[in-house]
Amino acid sequence: MTSTSKAFEASGPFGVENQGFVVGQEKNVYNNDPRRVSMVGSVKAVGDQTHRKLKSRHIQLIGIGGTIGTALYVQIGRGLVNGGPASLFLAFTLWCTVILAVTISIAEMVTFLPISSPFIRFAGRYVDDAFGFAAGWNFFVFEAALVPFEVVACNLIIGFWSDAVPAGGIIAIVLVLYAYVYLFAFSLLELAHEYATFSSLFYMIHSKSFEFQQNRGKAQMLVASAYYPYLRFGLTFYDNAKGYGESEFWAAIGKVLLIIGLLIFTFISMLGGNPAKDRYGFRYWKTPGSFAELYYKEDLGRFLGFLQCLIQASFTIAGPDYVSMAAGETENPRKVMPRAYNAVFYRLTTFFVLGSLAVGINVPYNDPTLIAGIKEGKPGAAASPYVVAMKRLGIEGLPHIVNAGVLASAFSAGNSYVYCASRSLYGLALEGKAPKFLTRCTKQGVPFYCVIFVLLIALLSFLQLSENSAVVLNWFVSLVTASQLINFSVMCFTFLRFYKACHVQGLDRNTLPYRGVCQPYAAYYGFVCTFIMTFVGGYTVFLKGQWDVPSFLFSYLMIFIFPTLFVGWKILKKTKWVASHEADLVTGLAEIEEYHRNFVQEPETNPFNRFLEKIFG
Protein backbone atom coordinates (compact mmCIF):
# COMPACT_ATOMS: atom_id res chain seq x y z
CA MET A 1 0.00 0.00 0.00
CA THR A 2 1.08 3.54 -0.67
CA SER A 3 0.04 6.75 0.96
CA THR A 4 0.31 10.36 -0.21
CA SER A 5 -0.67 11.81 3.12
CA LYS A 6 2.73 13.51 3.57
CA ALA A 7 2.45 15.13 0.17
CA PHE A 8 -1.05 16.20 1.04
CA GLU A 9 0.11 17.80 4.28
CA ALA A 10 2.91 19.64 2.47
CA SER A 11 0.73 21.01 -0.31
CA GLY A 12 -2.33 21.81 1.75
CA PRO A 13 -5.89 21.21 0.50
CA PHE A 14 -5.76 19.71 -2.95
CA GLY A 15 -7.27 21.67 -5.81
CA VAL A 16 -8.41 19.61 -8.77
CA GLU A 17 -10.68 20.99 -11.48
CA ASN A 18 -13.83 18.92 -11.25
CA GLN A 19 -16.92 19.73 -13.31
CA GLY A 20 -17.15 23.37 -12.37
CA PHE A 21 -15.74 23.10 -8.85
CA VAL A 22 -12.33 22.78 -7.28
CA VAL A 23 -11.89 20.18 -4.57
CA GLY A 24 -10.55 22.04 -1.57
CA GLN A 25 -11.63 25.49 -2.71
CA GLU A 26 -12.61 27.81 0.12
CA LYS A 27 -16.36 28.06 -0.30
CA ASN A 28 -19.20 27.85 2.15
CA VAL A 29 -21.77 26.74 -0.41
CA TYR A 30 -22.60 23.70 1.73
CA ASN A 31 -23.16 25.48 5.02
CA ASN A 32 -26.94 25.36 4.61
CA ASP A 33 -26.99 21.88 3.13
CA PRO A 34 -28.94 19.51 5.43
CA ARG A 35 -26.65 16.69 4.30
CA ARG A 36 -23.70 18.35 6.01
CA VAL A 37 -22.31 15.67 8.29
CA SER A 38 -18.68 16.40 9.02
CA MET A 39 -16.55 18.33 11.46
CA VAL A 40 -16.17 22.09 11.00
CA GLY A 41 -12.85 23.05 12.50
CA SER A 42 -13.96 21.90 15.92
CA VAL A 43 -14.78 18.75 17.78
CA LYS A 44 -18.46 18.89 16.99
CA ALA A 45 -20.50 19.18 13.80
CA VAL A 46 -23.95 20.22 12.79
CA GLY A 47 -26.03 17.09 12.42
CA ASP A 48 -23.35 14.83 13.86
CA GLN A 49 -23.02 14.98 17.61
CA THR A 50 -20.05 12.67 17.96
CA HIS A 51 -16.70 14.17 19.02
CA ARG A 52 -13.29 14.06 17.29
CA LYS A 53 -11.15 12.96 20.22
CA LEU A 54 -9.68 9.62 19.17
CA LYS A 55 -5.95 9.66 18.48
CA SER A 56 -3.84 7.46 16.22
CA ARG A 57 -3.09 4.96 18.98
CA HIS A 58 -6.80 4.67 19.79
CA ILE A 59 -7.77 3.99 16.17
CA GLN A 60 -5.07 1.38 15.65
CA LEU A 61 -5.90 -0.52 18.79
CA ILE A 62 -9.67 -0.25 18.22
CA GLY A 63 -9.10 -1.94 14.87
CA ILE A 64 -6.89 -4.61 16.41
CA GLY A 65 -8.92 -5.06 19.58
CA GLY A 66 -12.22 -5.29 17.73
CA THR A 67 -10.87 -8.12 15.59
CA ILE A 68 -8.85 -10.12 18.10
CA GLY A 69 -11.28 -11.96 20.29
CA THR A 70 -12.85 -15.35 20.79
CA ALA A 71 -12.41 -16.26 17.13
CA LEU A 72 -8.61 -16.22 17.37
CA TYR A 73 -8.37 -17.94 20.74
CA VAL A 74 -11.32 -20.35 20.71
CA GLN A 75 -13.21 -20.68 17.41
CA ILE A 76 -9.98 -21.18 15.47
CA GLY A 77 -9.90 -24.63 17.04
CA ARG A 78 -12.99 -25.57 15.04
CA GLY A 79 -11.10 -24.83 11.84
CA LEU A 80 -8.24 -27.05 13.02
CA VAL A 81 -10.62 -29.93 13.77
CA ASN A 82 -12.33 -29.60 10.38
CA GLY A 83 -9.35 -29.12 8.08
CA GLY A 84 -6.11 -29.92 9.86
CA PRO A 85 -3.07 -27.67 10.46
CA ALA A 86 -1.95 -27.16 6.83
CA SER A 87 -5.45 -26.30 5.60
CA LEU A 88 -5.88 -23.85 8.46
CA PHE A 89 -2.57 -22.10 7.79
CA LEU A 90 -3.08 -21.90 4.02
CA ALA A 91 -6.66 -20.69 4.35
CA PHE A 92 -5.77 -17.90 6.77
CA THR A 93 -2.85 -16.80 4.60
CA LEU A 94 -5.01 -16.74 1.46
CA TRP A 95 -7.82 -14.82 3.12
CA CYS A 96 -5.42 -12.14 4.32
CA THR A 97 -4.87 -11.22 0.66
CA VAL A 98 -8.61 -10.67 0.30
CA ILE A 99 -8.65 -8.46 3.39
CA LEU A 100 -5.75 -6.48 1.92
CA ALA A 101 -7.83 -5.79 -1.19
CA VAL A 102 -10.78 -4.67 0.93
CA THR A 103 -8.55 -2.51 3.14
CA ILE A 104 -6.91 -0.50 0.38
CA SER A 105 -10.32 0.03 -1.22
CA ILE A 106 -12.15 1.38 1.80
CA ALA A 107 -9.10 3.31 3.05
CA GLU A 108 -8.97 5.48 -0.05
CA MET A 109 -12.60 6.57 0.30
CA VAL A 110 -12.56 7.08 4.07
CA THR A 111 -9.40 9.20 4.16
CA PHE A 112 -10.87 11.34 1.37
CA LEU A 113 -14.03 12.01 3.39
CA PRO A 114 -13.72 10.82 7.04
CA ILE A 115 -17.28 10.91 8.34
CA SER A 116 -19.34 8.81 10.74
CA SER A 117 -20.37 5.37 9.39
CA PRO A 118 -18.47 6.13 6.18
CA PHE A 119 -18.78 3.06 3.98
CA ILE A 120 -22.49 2.80 4.74
CA ARG A 121 -23.10 6.36 3.62
CA PHE A 122 -20.73 6.09 0.68
CA ALA A 123 -22.81 3.18 -0.63
CA GLY A 124 -25.76 5.57 -0.84
CA ARG A 125 -23.77 8.43 -2.36
CA TYR A 126 -21.84 6.50 -5.01
CA VAL A 127 -24.17 3.57 -5.85
CA ASP A 128 -27.81 3.96 -4.87
CA ASP A 129 -29.54 5.27 -1.79
CA ALA A 130 -31.33 1.92 -1.50
CA PHE A 131 -27.95 0.18 -1.65
CA GLY A 132 -26.76 2.31 1.25
CA PHE A 133 -29.92 1.48 3.18
CA ALA A 134 -29.42 -2.27 2.74
CA ALA A 135 -25.68 -2.02 3.46
CA GLY A 136 -26.28 -0.03 6.62
CA TRP A 137 -28.77 -2.43 8.09
CA ASN A 138 -26.62 -5.42 7.10
CA PHE A 139 -23.62 -3.94 8.89
CA PHE A 140 -25.76 -3.23 11.91
CA VAL A 141 -26.97 -6.85 12.00
CA PHE A 142 -23.36 -8.01 11.63
CA GLU A 143 -22.11 -5.98 14.58
CA ALA A 144 -25.18 -6.53 16.73
CA ALA A 145 -25.00 -10.31 16.22
CA LEU A 146 -21.39 -10.32 17.40
CA VAL A 147 -22.47 -9.06 20.82
CA PRO A 148 -24.48 -12.20 21.76
CA PHE A 149 -21.75 -14.28 20.09
CA GLU A 150 -19.18 -12.96 22.57
CA VAL A 151 -21.62 -13.31 25.46
CA VAL A 152 -22.20 -16.97 24.59
CA ALA A 153 -18.44 -17.40 24.22
CA CYS A 154 -17.93 -16.03 27.74
CA ASN A 155 -20.16 -18.78 29.07
CA LEU A 156 -18.29 -21.43 27.07
CA ILE A 157 -14.92 -20.16 28.31
CA ILE A 158 -16.08 -20.04 31.91
CA GLY A 159 -17.24 -23.66 31.52
CA PHE A 160 -13.57 -24.67 31.64
CA TRP A 161 -13.64 -23.94 35.36
CA SER A 162 -17.15 -24.90 36.37
CA ASP A 163 -20.79 -25.06 35.32
CA ALA A 164 -21.95 -24.14 38.83
CA VAL A 165 -23.23 -20.73 37.71
CA PRO A 166 -26.32 -20.93 35.48
CA ALA A 167 -25.77 -19.68 31.95
CA GLY A 168 -28.52 -17.11 32.48
CA GLY A 169 -26.57 -15.58 35.35
CA ILE A 170 -23.42 -15.21 33.26
CA ILE A 171 -25.40 -13.60 30.42
CA ALA A 172 -27.03 -11.14 32.80
CA ILE A 173 -23.71 -10.09 34.37
CA VAL A 174 -22.04 -9.48 31.00
CA LEU A 175 -24.96 -7.48 29.59
CA VAL A 176 -25.22 -5.34 32.71
CA LEU A 177 -21.51 -4.52 32.45
CA TYR A 178 -21.91 -3.52 28.80
CA ALA A 179 -24.81 -1.27 29.70
CA TYR A 180 -22.79 0.28 32.51
CA VAL A 181 -19.87 1.05 30.20
CA TYR A 182 -21.95 2.83 27.56
CA LEU A 183 -24.91 4.41 29.28
CA PHE A 184 -22.98 6.23 31.97
CA ALA A 185 -19.85 8.35 31.96
CA PHE A 186 -17.36 6.08 33.64
CA SER A 187 -14.17 5.85 35.58
CA LEU A 188 -11.84 3.19 34.25
CA LEU A 189 -10.91 2.36 37.83
CA GLU A 190 -14.53 1.48 38.55
CA LEU A 191 -14.67 -0.49 35.31
CA ALA A 192 -11.53 -2.38 36.27
CA HIS A 193 -13.12 -3.20 39.60
CA GLU A 194 -16.16 -4.63 37.82
CA TYR A 195 -13.93 -6.74 35.55
CA ALA A 196 -11.84 -8.01 38.42
CA THR A 197 -14.94 -8.88 40.43
CA PHE A 198 -16.36 -10.68 37.40
CA SER A 199 -13.21 -12.76 36.99
CA SER A 200 -12.79 -13.45 40.69
CA LEU A 201 -16.40 -14.57 41.04
CA PHE A 202 -16.07 -17.39 38.53
CA TYR A 203 -12.62 -18.30 39.75
CA MET A 204 -14.03 -18.84 43.23
CA ILE A 205 -17.02 -20.80 41.94
CA HIS A 206 -14.86 -23.70 40.80
CA SER A 207 -13.01 -23.80 44.13
CA LYS A 208 -13.77 -27.47 44.67
CA SER A 209 -11.93 -28.57 41.56
CA PHE A 210 -9.14 -26.02 41.82
CA GLU A 211 -8.85 -25.84 45.59
CA PHE A 212 -9.23 -22.10 45.62
CA GLN A 213 -8.78 -21.75 49.36
CA GLN A 214 -5.26 -23.15 49.05
CA ASN A 215 -4.43 -21.07 45.98
CA ARG A 216 -5.38 -17.50 46.85
CA GLY A 217 -2.08 -16.19 45.50
CA LYS A 218 -2.67 -17.87 42.17
CA ALA A 219 -6.16 -16.40 42.01
CA GLN A 220 -4.82 -12.93 42.67
CA MET A 221 -2.20 -13.42 39.97
CA LEU A 222 -4.89 -14.51 37.52
CA VAL A 223 -7.00 -11.42 38.09
CA ALA A 224 -4.00 -9.10 38.01
CA SER A 225 -2.60 -10.57 34.80
CA ALA A 226 -5.94 -10.45 33.01
CA TYR A 227 -6.88 -6.92 33.99
CA TYR A 228 -3.62 -5.15 34.76
CA PRO A 229 -4.06 -2.59 31.95
CA TYR A 230 -7.37 -1.46 33.42
CA LEU A 231 -6.07 -1.31 36.97
CA ARG A 232 -2.92 0.59 36.01
CA PHE A 233 -4.50 3.23 33.80
CA GLY A 234 -7.94 3.60 35.34
CA LEU A 235 -7.46 6.81 37.33
CA THR A 236 -8.86 9.41 34.95
CA PHE A 237 -12.45 10.37 34.23
CA TYR A 238 -13.30 10.56 30.53
CA ASP A 239 -16.23 11.45 28.34
CA ASN A 240 -17.53 8.47 26.39
CA ALA A 241 -15.71 9.03 23.08
CA LYS A 242 -12.26 9.37 24.58
CA GLY A 243 -13.10 7.02 27.44
CA TYR A 244 -14.04 4.31 24.99
CA GLY A 245 -10.82 4.92 23.08
CA GLU A 246 -8.71 4.69 26.23
CA SER A 247 -10.46 1.60 27.59
CA GLU A 248 -10.26 -0.18 24.22
CA PHE A 249 -6.64 0.88 23.80
CA TRP A 250 -5.56 -0.83 26.99
CA ALA A 251 -7.87 -3.78 26.48
CA ALA A 252 -6.37 -4.27 23.02
CA ILE A 253 -2.86 -3.97 24.47
CA GLY A 254 -3.80 -6.83 26.76
CA LYS A 255 -4.99 -8.89 23.78
CA VAL A 256 -1.83 -8.17 21.82
CA LEU A 257 0.34 -9.17 24.77
CA LEU A 258 -1.72 -12.34 25.16
CA ILE A 259 -1.34 -13.46 21.54
CA ILE A 260 2.37 -12.56 21.56
CA GLY A 261 2.76 -14.55 24.76
CA LEU A 262 0.98 -17.53 23.20
CA LEU A 263 3.22 -17.38 20.14
CA ILE A 264 6.30 -17.30 22.37
CA PHE A 265 4.87 -20.21 24.38
CA THR A 266 4.43 -22.16 21.14
CA PHE A 267 8.00 -21.54 20.02
CA ILE A 268 9.56 -22.47 23.37
CA SER A 269 7.28 -25.42 24.02
CA MET A 270 7.68 -27.02 20.58
CA LEU A 271 11.46 -27.03 21.13
CA GLY A 272 11.09 -28.94 24.39
CA GLY A 273 10.76 -26.11 26.89
CA ASN A 274 7.88 -27.68 28.78
CA PRO A 275 7.46 -29.81 31.95
CA ALA A 276 7.12 -32.97 29.86
CA LYS A 277 10.41 -32.21 28.04
CA ASP A 278 8.53 -33.08 24.87
CA ARG A 279 10.26 -31.66 21.78
CA TYR A 280 7.24 -32.12 19.54
CA GLY A 281 8.02 -29.57 16.79
CA PHE A 282 5.76 -30.23 13.79
CA ARG A 283 4.85 -33.72 14.99
CA TYR A 284 1.11 -33.20 14.57
CA TRP A 285 1.60 -32.20 10.95
CA LYS A 286 2.82 -35.78 10.39
CA THR A 287 0.59 -37.63 12.84
CA PRO A 288 -2.37 -37.49 12.42
CA GLY A 289 -1.41 -35.40 9.37
CA SER A 290 -1.43 -31.98 7.72
CA PHE A 291 -4.87 -32.23 6.11
CA ALA A 292 -8.00 -33.56 7.78
CA GLU A 293 -10.74 -35.26 5.80
CA LEU A 294 -14.20 -33.76 6.28
CA TYR A 295 -17.42 -35.64 5.38
CA TYR A 296 -15.70 -37.62 2.59
CA LYS A 297 -12.50 -39.60 2.12
CA GLU A 298 -9.31 -38.69 0.26
CA ASP A 299 -9.06 -35.59 -1.96
CA LEU A 300 -12.70 -34.50 -1.77
CA GLY A 301 -12.66 -34.75 2.02
CA ARG A 302 -9.40 -32.80 2.24
CA PHE A 303 -10.76 -30.12 -0.11
CA LEU A 304 -13.90 -29.72 2.00
CA GLY A 305 -11.70 -29.48 5.08
CA PHE A 306 -9.72 -26.65 3.46
CA LEU A 307 -12.95 -24.96 2.39
CA GLN A 308 -14.23 -25.11 5.97
CA CYS A 309 -10.98 -23.48 7.15
CA LEU A 310 -11.43 -20.76 4.52
CA ILE A 311 -14.93 -20.12 5.86
CA GLN A 312 -13.44 -19.97 9.35
CA ALA A 313 -10.87 -17.43 8.14
CA SER A 314 -13.58 -15.30 6.53
CA PHE A 315 -15.27 -15.09 9.92
CA THR A 316 -12.12 -14.54 11.97
CA ILE A 317 -10.15 -11.97 9.96
CA ALA A 318 -11.44 -8.41 9.73
CA GLY A 319 -10.14 -4.97 10.64
CA PRO A 320 -10.85 -2.30 8.00
CA ASP A 321 -14.49 -1.99 9.03
CA TYR A 322 -13.60 -1.22 12.66
CA VAL A 323 -11.04 1.40 11.67
CA SER A 324 -13.54 2.97 9.27
CA MET A 325 -16.34 3.22 11.79
CA ALA A 326 -14.20 5.46 14.00
CA ALA A 327 -13.42 7.94 11.19
CA GLY A 328 -16.04 10.44 12.35
CA GLU A 329 -14.51 10.58 15.83
CA THR A 330 -10.85 10.64 14.82
CA GLU A 331 -8.66 13.62 15.53
CA ASN A 332 -6.85 14.92 12.41
CA PRO A 333 -8.22 11.98 10.36
CA ARG A 334 -6.45 12.59 7.05
CA LYS A 335 -3.11 12.19 8.76
CA VAL A 336 -4.13 9.50 11.23
CA MET A 337 -6.31 7.19 9.11
CA PRO A 338 -3.77 6.17 6.41
CA ARG A 339 -1.25 5.07 9.03
CA ALA A 340 -3.98 3.33 11.02
CA TYR A 341 -5.14 1.25 8.04
CA ASN A 342 -1.59 0.18 7.22
CA ALA A 343 -0.64 -0.60 10.81
CA VAL A 344 -3.82 -2.52 11.60
CA PHE A 345 -3.63 -4.68 8.48
CA TYR A 346 0.00 -5.72 8.83
CA ARG A 347 -0.20 -6.36 12.56
CA LEU A 348 -3.42 -8.35 12.28
CA THR A 349 -2.04 -10.36 9.38
CA THR A 350 0.98 -11.27 11.49
CA PHE A 351 -1.17 -12.33 14.44
CA PHE A 352 -3.69 -14.33 12.40
CA VAL A 353 -1.22 -16.13 10.13
CA LEU A 354 1.17 -16.98 12.97
CA GLY A 355 -1.79 -17.81 15.22
CA SER A 356 -3.16 -20.32 12.71
CA LEU A 357 0.30 -21.85 12.44
CA ALA A 358 0.73 -22.04 16.23
CA VAL A 359 -2.60 -23.78 16.79
CA GLY A 360 -1.68 -26.51 14.31
CA ILE A 361 1.69 -26.98 16.00
CA ASN A 362 0.31 -27.27 19.53
CA VAL A 363 -2.69 -29.56 19.09
CA PRO A 364 -3.55 -32.45 16.74
CA TYR A 365 -6.79 -31.99 14.85
CA ASN A 366 -8.22 -35.18 16.37
CA ASP A 367 -7.57 -34.20 20.01
CA PRO A 368 -10.59 -35.49 22.01
CA THR A 369 -10.44 -32.66 24.58
CA LEU A 370 -10.51 -30.01 21.86
CA ILE A 371 -13.38 -31.72 20.08
CA ALA A 372 -15.32 -31.94 23.35
CA GLY A 373 -14.88 -28.24 24.01
CA ILE A 374 -15.31 -26.83 20.51
CA LYS A 375 -17.99 -29.05 19.00
CA GLU A 376 -19.88 -30.31 22.04
CA GLY A 377 -19.42 -27.48 24.54
CA LYS A 378 -18.92 -29.89 27.43
CA PRO A 379 -18.42 -28.21 30.84
CA GLY A 380 -14.86 -28.59 32.04
CA ALA A 381 -13.48 -29.05 28.53
CA ALA A 382 -10.90 -26.56 27.35
CA ALA A 383 -12.38 -24.50 24.52
CA SER A 384 -9.07 -22.86 23.58
CA PRO A 385 -6.48 -24.99 21.70
CA TYR A 386 -3.72 -23.27 23.67
CA VAL A 387 -5.27 -24.32 26.97
CA VAL A 388 -5.63 -27.88 25.64
CA ALA A 389 -1.91 -27.93 24.82
CA MET A 390 -0.89 -26.56 28.22
CA LYS A 391 -2.94 -29.15 30.08
CA ARG A 392 -1.55 -31.96 27.94
CA LEU A 393 2.01 -30.85 28.70
CA GLY A 394 1.32 -30.75 32.44
CA ILE A 395 1.74 -26.99 32.83
CA GLU A 396 0.14 -25.91 36.11
CA GLY A 397 -1.57 -22.57 36.66
CA LEU A 398 -0.85 -21.11 33.22
CA PRO A 399 -3.97 -22.64 31.57
CA HIS A 400 -6.13 -20.82 34.12
CA ILE A 401 -4.34 -17.52 33.50
CA VAL A 402 -4.64 -17.91 29.72
CA ASN A 403 -8.29 -18.86 30.01
CA ALA A 404 -8.88 -15.74 32.10
CA GLY A 405 -7.09 -13.69 29.44
CA VAL A 406 -9.28 -15.23 26.74
CA LEU A 407 -12.32 -14.39 28.86
CA ALA A 408 -11.18 -10.78 29.16
CA SER A 409 -10.56 -10.72 25.42
CA ALA A 410 -14.05 -11.99 24.67
CA PHE A 411 -15.59 -9.41 26.97
CA SER A 412 -13.55 -6.61 25.41
CA ALA A 413 -14.43 -7.70 21.87
CA GLY A 414 -18.11 -7.59 22.79
CA ASN A 415 -17.47 -4.09 24.12
CA SER A 416 -16.14 -3.07 20.68
CA TYR A 417 -19.13 -4.58 18.93
CA VAL A 418 -21.57 -2.62 21.07
CA TYR A 419 -19.67 0.50 20.05
CA CYS A 420 -19.62 -0.25 16.31
CA ALA A 421 -23.22 -1.47 16.19
CA SER A 422 -24.53 1.61 17.98
CA ARG A 423 -22.44 3.92 15.76
CA SER A 424 -23.64 2.25 12.56
CA LEU A 425 -27.25 2.57 13.69
CA TYR A 426 -26.57 6.20 14.57
CA GLY A 427 -25.23 6.77 11.05
CA LEU A 428 -28.38 5.24 9.57
CA ALA A 429 -30.52 7.54 11.68
CA LEU A 430 -28.53 10.60 10.54
CA GLU A 431 -29.25 9.59 6.95
CA GLY A 432 -32.97 9.13 7.61
CA LYS A 433 -32.74 5.35 7.18
CA ALA A 434 -33.63 4.64 10.79
CA PRO A 435 -36.05 6.39 13.19
CA LYS A 436 -35.05 9.97 13.94
CA PHE A 437 -35.13 9.55 17.73
CA LEU A 438 -32.02 7.35 17.42
CA THR A 439 -29.95 10.47 16.63
CA ARG A 440 -30.31 11.72 20.20
CA CYS A 441 -27.03 11.72 22.10
CA THR A 442 -26.06 12.35 25.68
CA LYS A 443 -23.84 15.28 26.65
CA GLN A 444 -20.88 12.92 26.35
CA GLY A 445 -21.73 12.17 22.69
CA VAL A 446 -23.24 8.73 23.34
CA PRO A 447 -26.12 7.74 21.00
CA PHE A 448 -28.22 6.60 23.94
CA TYR A 449 -31.14 4.91 22.18
CA CYS A 450 -28.83 3.19 19.70
CA VAL A 451 -26.96 1.55 22.56
CA ILE A 452 -30.23 0.46 24.17
CA PHE A 453 -31.38 -1.13 20.90
CA VAL A 454 -28.10 -3.05 20.53
CA LEU A 455 -28.34 -4.37 24.08
CA LEU A 456 -31.88 -5.57 23.42
CA ILE A 457 -30.62 -7.60 20.46
CA ALA A 458 -27.89 -9.00 22.71
CA LEU A 459 -30.66 -10.75 24.65
CA LEU A 460 -30.54 -13.38 21.87
CA SER A 461 -27.65 -14.83 23.85
CA PHE A 462 -30.31 -16.39 26.10
CA LEU A 463 -30.87 -18.90 23.27
CA GLN A 464 -28.13 -20.98 24.86
CA LEU A 465 -30.46 -21.73 27.77
CA SER A 466 -32.34 -24.18 25.53
CA GLU A 467 -29.43 -25.35 23.35
CA ASN A 468 -25.82 -26.44 23.72
CA SER A 469 -23.65 -23.32 23.98
CA ALA A 470 -21.33 -24.59 21.24
CA VAL A 471 -24.30 -25.05 18.90
CA VAL A 472 -25.62 -21.55 19.56
CA LEU A 473 -22.12 -20.16 19.12
CA ASN A 474 -21.94 -21.79 15.70
CA TRP A 475 -25.31 -20.27 14.73
CA PHE A 476 -24.02 -16.79 15.45
CA VAL A 477 -20.78 -17.56 13.60
CA SER A 478 -22.82 -18.43 10.49
CA LEU A 479 -24.92 -15.26 10.72
CA VAL A 480 -21.91 -13.04 11.34
CA THR A 481 -19.86 -14.63 8.55
CA ALA A 482 -22.57 -14.05 5.94
CA SER A 483 -23.11 -10.45 7.05
CA GLN A 484 -19.39 -9.71 7.17
CA LEU A 485 -18.84 -11.06 3.66
CA ILE A 486 -21.70 -8.92 2.38
CA ASN A 487 -20.09 -5.92 4.10
CA PHE A 488 -16.78 -6.53 2.36
CA SER A 489 -18.53 -7.01 -0.99
CA VAL A 490 -20.32 -3.71 -0.47
CA MET A 491 -17.05 -1.91 0.33
CA CYS A 492 -15.33 -3.20 -2.81
CA PHE A 493 -18.31 -2.54 -5.09
CA THR A 494 -18.74 0.95 -3.66
CA PHE A 495 -15.09 1.67 -4.31
CA LEU A 496 -15.47 0.59 -7.93
CA ARG A 497 -18.26 3.16 -8.31
CA PHE A 498 -16.14 5.78 -6.52
CA TYR A 499 -13.19 4.95 -8.79
CA LYS A 500 -15.29 5.41 -11.90
CA ALA A 501 -16.85 8.64 -10.56
CA CYS A 502 -13.39 10.08 -9.94
CA HIS A 503 -12.38 9.22 -13.50
CA VAL A 504 -15.54 10.64 -15.09
CA GLN A 505 -15.55 13.82 -13.00
CA GLY A 506 -11.85 14.46 -13.48
CA LEU A 507 -10.72 14.00 -9.89
CA ASP A 508 -7.07 12.94 -9.96
CA ARG A 509 -6.62 10.12 -7.43
CA ASN A 510 -2.95 11.03 -7.11
CA THR A 511 -4.03 14.09 -5.13
CA LEU A 512 -5.99 12.07 -2.57
CA PRO A 513 -4.69 11.74 1.01
CA TYR A 514 -4.43 7.97 0.44
CA ARG A 515 -4.19 6.15 -2.87
CA GLY A 516 -4.50 2.38 -2.92
CA VAL A 517 -2.26 0.31 -5.18
CA CYS A 518 -3.39 -2.13 -7.89
CA GLN A 519 -6.74 -0.44 -8.32
CA PRO A 520 -9.32 -1.18 -9.58
CA TYR A 521 -8.06 -4.78 -9.86
CA ALA A 522 -7.69 -5.20 -6.09
CA ALA A 523 -11.30 -4.13 -5.60
CA TYR A 524 -12.48 -6.61 -8.27
CA TYR A 525 -10.49 -9.36 -6.56
CA GLY A 526 -11.95 -8.52 -3.15
CA PHE A 527 -15.48 -8.27 -4.51
CA VAL A 528 -15.42 -11.58 -6.39
CA CYS A 529 -13.88 -13.53 -3.49
CA THR A 530 -16.22 -12.17 -0.82
CA PHE A 531 -19.29 -12.49 -3.06
CA ILE A 532 -18.61 -16.15 -3.82
CA MET A 533 -17.80 -16.99 -0.19
CA THR A 534 -21.12 -15.48 0.89
CA PHE A 535 -22.93 -18.33 -0.84
CA VAL A 536 -20.39 -21.00 0.09
CA GLY A 537 -20.51 -20.31 3.84
CA GLY A 538 -23.42 -22.63 4.66
CA TYR A 539 -22.79 -25.32 2.06
CA THR A 540 -22.65 -28.12 4.62
CA VAL A 541 -26.44 -28.09 5.11
CA PHE A 542 -26.84 -29.32 1.52
CA LEU A 543 -24.65 -32.38 2.03
CA LYS A 544 -26.35 -35.72 2.54
CA GLY A 545 -27.50 -36.13 6.14
CA GLN A 546 -26.39 -32.61 7.17
CA TRP A 547 -29.63 -30.65 6.71
CA ASP A 548 -30.44 -28.44 9.69
CA VAL A 549 -33.05 -25.67 9.59
CA PRO A 550 -31.44 -23.29 12.14
CA SER A 551 -28.04 -23.67 10.45
CA PHE A 552 -29.58 -22.89 7.06
CA LEU A 553 -31.41 -19.82 8.35
CA PHE A 554 -28.41 -18.38 10.18
CA SER A 555 -26.16 -19.02 7.15
CA TYR A 556 -28.39 -17.61 4.41
CA LEU A 557 -30.87 -15.29 6.10
CA MET A 558 -28.93 -12.11 5.28
CA ILE A 559 -28.49 -13.18 1.65
CA PHE A 560 -32.27 -12.98 1.31
CA ILE A 561 -32.75 -9.96 3.57
CA PHE A 562 -30.18 -7.74 1.81
CA PRO A 563 -31.90 -7.68 -1.63
CA THR A 564 -35.27 -7.43 0.10
CA LEU A 565 -34.15 -4.29 1.92
CA PHE A 566 -32.66 -2.91 -1.30
CA VAL A 567 -35.79 -3.47 -3.40
CA GLY A 568 -38.16 -2.38 -0.63
CA TRP A 569 -36.37 0.94 -0.02
CA LYS A 570 -36.00 1.53 -3.76
CA ILE A 571 -39.74 1.14 -4.30
CA LEU A 572 -40.69 3.10 -1.19
CA LYS A 573 -38.37 6.06 -1.84
CA LYS A 574 -38.21 5.73 -5.64
CA THR A 575 -34.42 5.93 -5.56
CA LYS A 576 -32.27 5.92 -8.69
CA TRP A 577 -28.98 4.29 -9.54
CA VAL A 578 -26.30 6.97 -9.20
CA ALA A 579 -24.63 7.73 -12.52
CA SER A 580 -20.88 8.28 -12.35
CA HIS A 581 -21.13 11.91 -13.44
CA GLU A 582 -23.76 12.55 -10.74
CA ALA A 583 -21.98 10.83 -7.82
CA ASP A 584 -21.63 13.25 -4.91
CA LEU A 585 -17.91 13.74 -4.33
CA VAL A 586 -18.38 17.15 -2.73
CA THR A 587 -20.86 17.25 0.13
CA GLY A 588 -19.03 17.56 3.44
CA LEU A 589 -15.65 17.99 1.76
CA ALA A 590 -15.37 21.73 2.41
CA GLU A 591 -16.07 21.20 6.10
CA ILE A 592 -13.46 18.45 6.38
CA GLU A 593 -10.83 20.65 4.76
CA GLU A 594 -11.80 23.60 6.93
CA TYR A 595 -11.36 21.37 9.96
CA HIS A 596 -7.85 20.44 8.80
CA ARG A 597 -6.90 24.03 8.04
CA ASN A 598 -8.00 25.12 11.51
CA PHE A 599 -6.73 22.04 13.32
CA VAL A 600 -4.07 22.74 15.92
CA GLN A 601 -2.45 19.76 17.59
CA GLU A 602 -2.64 20.19 21.35
CA PRO A 603 0.74 19.41 22.91
CA GLU A 604 0.73 16.26 25.01
CA THR A 605 1.75 17.12 28.56
CA ASN A 606 1.81 13.59 29.92
CA PRO A 607 5.28 12.04 29.33
CA PHE A 608 3.87 8.54 29.17
CA ASN A 609 1.27 9.53 26.57
CA ARG A 610 4.01 11.23 24.53
CA PHE A 611 5.88 7.93 24.59
CA LEU A 612 2.77 6.11 23.36
CA GLU A 613 2.23 8.63 20.57
CA LYS A 614 5.78 8.05 19.33
CA ILE A 615 5.23 4.30 19.24
CA PHE A 616 1.84 4.38 17.52
CA GLY A 617 2.27 7.58 15.53
How do the strands and helices of this protein lay out in sequence?
Blueprint: E1 2-3, H1 5-11, E2 17-18, E3 21-22, H2 56-67, H3 70-83, H4 85-112, H5 118-126, H6 129-158, H7 167-183, H8 188-205, H9 207-210, H10 216-232, H11 240-270, H12 283-286, H13 298-316, H14 320-325, H15 333-362, H16 368-374, H17 385-392, H18 398-430, H19 448-457, H20 469-505, E4 514-515, H21 521-536, H22 549-573, H23 589-598, H24 607-616
Antiparallel strand pairs: 1-4, 2-3
Helix pairs in contact: 2-11, 2-15, 2-18, 3-13, 3-15, 4-13, 4-15, 4-20, 4-21, 5-6, 5-20, 6-7, 6-18, 6-20, 6-22, 7-18, 7-19, 8-10, 10-11, 10-18, 11-15, 11-18, 13-20, 17-18, 18-19, 20-21, 20-22
**Strands ordered across the widest β-sheet:** 1-4
Radius of gyration: 24 Å
How many domains? The number is 1
Largest sheet properties: 2 strands, antiparallel
* Number of distinct beta strands: 4
The CATH class, by name, is Mainly Alpha
Q: Please name the CATH topology.
A: Amino acid/polyamine transporter I
Q: For the residues shown, what is the average pLDDT?
A: 78
Straight-line N-to-C gap: 17 Å
Shape: globular
The CATH superfamily is known as: Amino acid/polyamine transporter I
- Please identify, by name, the CATH architecture: Up-down Bundle
Helix content: 55-70%
Computed structural class: mainly alpha
DSSP strand content: under 5%
The helix/strand series, from N terminus to C terminus, equals EHEEHHHHHHHHHHHHHHHHHHHEHHHH
How many helices does DSSP assign? Answer: 24
pLDDT below 50 for ≥5 consecutive residues: which ranges? 1-47, 185-240
